User: Fold this.
Amino acid sequence: MKRKKTNQVIVYTMLIIATIVSIFPFIWMIVSATNKSVDVTKGRLLPGTHFVENIQNLLTSTELIPALINSAKISITTTILSLVIASLAGYGFEIYQSKSKDIVFNVLLLSMMIPFAALMVPLFKMFGSISQTFPLIGIDTLVAVILPTVTTAFLIFFFRQSTKMFPKDILEAGRIDGLTELGVFFRIYIPTMKTTYAAAAIITFMASWNNYLWPLVILQSPENQTIPLLVSNLGSSYSPDYGVIMTAIVIATLPVAAIFFLLQKHFVAGMMGSVK
Amino acid sequence: MLITEKERELSRSPRKKQINHKLKSTVIGWSFISLAAIMICVFYFYPMIQALLLSFQSGTGANLEFVGIENYTRLFKDPTFLTALKNTVIYLIVQVPLMILLALILSVLLNNKNLKFKGFFRTAIFLPCVTSLVAYSVIFKYLFSQDGIINLMLMKIALISEPIQWLTDPFWAKITIIIAITWRWTGYNMIFYLSALQNVDESIYEAAKIDGASSLQQFFKITIPNLKPIILFTSITSTIGTLQLFDEVVNITQGGPGNATITISQYIYNLSFKYTPDFGYAATVSYIIVIMIIIFSIIQFKVAGDKK
Assistant:
């Protein structure tokens, strides 16, 4: 019995340490966002009263609002397009299964192994070469940020896996009722697969909102910068104002954190979808 | 027997209809896939071919000329590339096993039936995954700066007498990067193990306990073998992720001090967009990551194949 109790103590101690380590940077971030830079460097760990002041400084010294709008535009467009493209394909591969399509599917899956670092140079050259003729989708446009990231083999794979459990009789019933193939997809498949779409949407939105490398490469003018670029720039300044920077990070993290807490179950379901 | 033209027509038409239907279904099936397939070809496969062609060229900016395998021989004489390669491999072989072990231990602790506040612990440990890579990197940069809170606290509890150069010492800078990545991803991997553990039969543990197996023996003899497939999955994804490490290094140490923490991805970025651009050589370096991913994946698949 005694041994069991010491075991319990060890378990709780380890979990509490892990919890503190996990949460501490968040607490420090939030507390620092309410303090003056001087107090942050002194190691103050108590909430202060300078949050509003920090926000005002942030608004005057950086292009916070345009960056938020850019990030929102990019993330929302990417999420919608990704879901449409990937679900159409996942549905197509599973419902109209054939040997030749399976070969195509496996070839597409290979793209998951391609590191983005290997793609960025040729992609940059690609967008550079069309910049002259099509300035609206060339370098330094939001479209150029979106296009290469909307289609991922992972998401196609994810939708195909989820479609495997889809009751196919319903589709047949829809066809007999006179729906076209696309009608079946939009009227029957999408409404039944809501949770799959929710999971896919969270994963895609978070990835897009947080994306750093490709926007860093393709975006140049300050008015086009996204939130991660803004945070990164603030972080590399020579005379950092810690209070202001932490406020910026709090604002950058909030939308994603809110979505995460609202849809936590779907997020975990999405993660698991990659293993099934 | 005489078959009239009309009868022939009649016997043919259903078949014709069937063929038509089949053809239609094939066309529809392919059109569902076409958009995704075209996008992946344009934005993944075509650039990969371009990169391969580029890797045999050299020059600055748009003035490229064919140089054969010169770029590839240059790799072995390039000290920055060799440092970047060494660093990436160090991150890989230190950080990935450390993180997986930590995640396994935490998931076993959380899988305890009688544990109180389970949901709280799980959410708390998973929380770091919510942050963007850039945001948490900047936070860690300040936490670990010379006069940062970590040094202040360590000195307060008298664990160290003078501040550790977390960001400016070549050794400690690597440690900081490893701590940061481990903080961000341990909870993520833990969730996979937790859900896999729920499928492990409780009675195996009961039987082991009766046979007098210690917790450690249970961990190595029951938990790990049962989770082998999922451990493989997470190690493949972590390996691919670590080979592409960029955001953290750029935002925490900028690859410094010197090139002590630079990664291959960062070097490719520097070659293309920071120094005088040499797209050809950058493409050559990027193919090294591709080759490494292929090699590591083959190794992992071989190990997974053994299990079968």
Chain B touches chain A through 86 residues (CB under 8 Å). The mean pLDDT of chain B is 85. The two ends of chain B are 62 Å apart (CA to CA). The CA atoms of residues 78 and 157 of chain B lie 44 Å apart.
